[in-house]
Amino acid sequence: PSRASDIVVSGAGYKVVGSGLILLSTVVHYLQCGAAVPAVAPPIAHALPVLLRGYHTHAYKQVLMAGAMLPTSAGLKSISFKHLALSSQSLGVLLALLPHLKAILAAYLPEAQRHALKEFDGVESDLEAHQQQIFAKFVSILEERRRGRVKDLSAALAPPQAGAQRQPEPSANIKAVAADLRAVYKTLRDLLTPQQLHKVFELILTAFDAGLLEAYRGVDTAPAFSRQCIVQDVQFLRKEVARLHLSLPSGCCPNLVAFALALPVA
To answer: How far apart are CA 189 and CA 187, in angstroms?
Structure first.
């Protein structure tokens, strides 16, 4: 099903789609069996990591490798930000639950067989790497859009021709970049946990810092008009990002800001 259900683990809410709910239901049945018949706890300790890895592999193929677009699968027209976010949420709830699963199983495993729980460490690494690749996908999509927005930046910030009246102001280029950020934020804010949301935007803006800096360095800054336009653009971007109320350890695009501050505007 396309609708997601909210699951709360340790105070954090995760939106989980149908396949994730089926997985969690199966995990619960495994644990119930282990509690009811402690003798089967050891094989369950081996079976659960296999089950979780199977889910991770299938989700990876369906979303990151776009398998869900195949006619033999879901037949989606595209893999959207929503699909990526919901996949990340399903991984997130599994990562949040792993310590609890290990603790429950440990209570029913003989001391000599608790080494089997180390298999969950490999699962945790796989899930974390998978989630990081989803975050990287968010960045790559936004970076591709960002590059398209600033491809004609030099022409946009060039001084007006003789006789033309034009004041320095934020360019249509940076307004489009900010609009992309707002649109993605609006999509993701209700799908990701706050921690995930802030992390994703930290990664996006780190990439933007380098990409925009390169783009603005390509502008001829000899004319005062162009320098003033660059400063206007950077100030505009900072204000727009500030409205998102993100937790950014280094602030918004610190290297780009430093570049703009160093430009003489007179």
So the answer is: 6
